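Budget justification aside, the reviewers requested a transparent look at the raw inputs and outputs of the sequence design task funded under Objective 1. We therefore reproduce one unedited record. The lines immediately below are the structure tokens for a 378-residue chain.
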């Protein structure tokens, strides 16, 4: 009797185990190109899933650029006279106004100009006296007409010599009201800062009015509150760029500070050496972050349009193939199905990339963590 009871218990236990095994569903394996995850696995992998939508994307052209002075705000100062620098008044970084003196040059040229003016004035006085005397004699028939006309011509020539001497003195930026001197004041033609200085006391300089082949620049005065940025445009991109397009500039000196401007000039001739065209934009530079001759990167915004777009982080690249993972409903056991889908991509803009094929608006894709899904199939 005890053996029968034991046998019945064993049969009952085995039947229960078989029943339990039959009630437990068999876990299916996802087919190729799919990954199935439970809600707990999605949370553990920290997957971010978002719908695909349209976004305003800008197509950019990137090229190298160089900072330069605004040519209307810079002056390269040379000496119009030859001589020796006796005093330097303009210091590096000094803010000066238009007409302020930069240096004093002891110049025989200025002394000669003053001498010519004084002599011309004296000759004019003598010639006018002679003309008045001959005019009076001729009026009383006491002098020949030829002598009268000769005195008149001499007076006119003397007047012309005075005017010539005055123009020469004016060309040397010297005032006629001052006293004769050989000290020439080299003045700034514009307002700005002293950017560069080559003048030193005792330096012998050649004037621009001399016959010297090489004339040394003594000062560079500029205002960099507004600067020009020049860029190079290759021939193949000529049809894409026009005046008025927005430009963003970045430099290695301030990589996090982007400066915006607009193209205001596109060259009409190609450089014969580089076969490029110059483009230019003017930008404000009140904080003087941009320095002349600094190199920058220019990003020209060619166009802005609405396009189906997704974050770059959603794309998995394998050779020439680009794929994303699309959420595609639930499996029979309640897991979320993700299908791998090949996409064709277009222009990129600030972390986003346009989609030309493979997705439709509203498709829910994995935008973060998709690389984990790719690895789960290996």
């Amino acid at each position: 009797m005890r053996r029968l009871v034991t046998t019945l218990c064993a049969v009952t236990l085995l039947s229960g185990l078989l029943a339990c095994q039959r009630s437990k569903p068999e876990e299916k394996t996802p087919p190729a190109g799919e990954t199935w995850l439970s809600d707990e696995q999605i949370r553990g992998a920290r997957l971010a899933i978002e719908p695909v939508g349209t976004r305003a994307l800008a197509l950019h052209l990137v090229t190298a650029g160089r900072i330069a002075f605004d040519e209307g705000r810079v002056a390269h100062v040379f000496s119009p006279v030859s001589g020796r620098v006796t005093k330097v008044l303009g210091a590096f970084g000094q803010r000066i106004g238009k007409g302020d003196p930069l240096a004093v040059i002891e110049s025989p040229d200025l002394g000669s100009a003053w001498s010519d003016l004084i002599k011309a004035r004296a000759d004019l006085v003598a010639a006018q006296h002679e003309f008045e005397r001959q005019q009076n004699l001729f009026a009383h028939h006491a002098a020949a007409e030829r002598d009268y006309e000769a005195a008149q011509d001499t007076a006119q020539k003397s007047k012309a010599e005075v005017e010539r001497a005055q123009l020469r003195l004016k060309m040397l930026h010297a005032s006629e009201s001052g006293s004769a001197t050989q000290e020439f004041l080299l003045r700034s033609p514009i307002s700005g800062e002293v950017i560069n200085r080559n003048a030193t006391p005792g330096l012998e300089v050649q004037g621009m009015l001399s016959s010297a082949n090489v004339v040394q620049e003594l000062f560079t005065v500029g205002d960099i509150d507004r600067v020009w940025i020049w860029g190079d445009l290759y021939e193949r991109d000529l049809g894409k760029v026009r005046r008025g397009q927005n430009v963003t500039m970045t430099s290695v000196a301030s990589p996090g500070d982007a400066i915006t401007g607009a193209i205001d000039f596109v060259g009409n001739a190609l450089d014969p050496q580089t076969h490029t065209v110059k483009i230019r934009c003017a930008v404000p530079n009140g904080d003087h972050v941009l320095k002349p001759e600094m190199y920058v990167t220019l990003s020209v915004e060619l166009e802005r349009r609405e396009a189906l777009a997704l974050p770059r982080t959603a794309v998995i690249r394998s050779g020439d193939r680009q794929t994303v993972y699309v959420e595609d409903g639930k499996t029979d056991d309640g897991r979320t199905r993700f299908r791998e889908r090949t996409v064709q991509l277009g222009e990129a803009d600030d972390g986003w990339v346009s989609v030309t094929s493979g997705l439709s608006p509203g498709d829910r894709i994995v935008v973060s963590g998709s690389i984990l899904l790719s690895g789960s199939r290996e």
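The chain has five helices and 22 strands. The longest strand covers residues 53-69. Computational costs for records of this kind are itemized in the attached budget.
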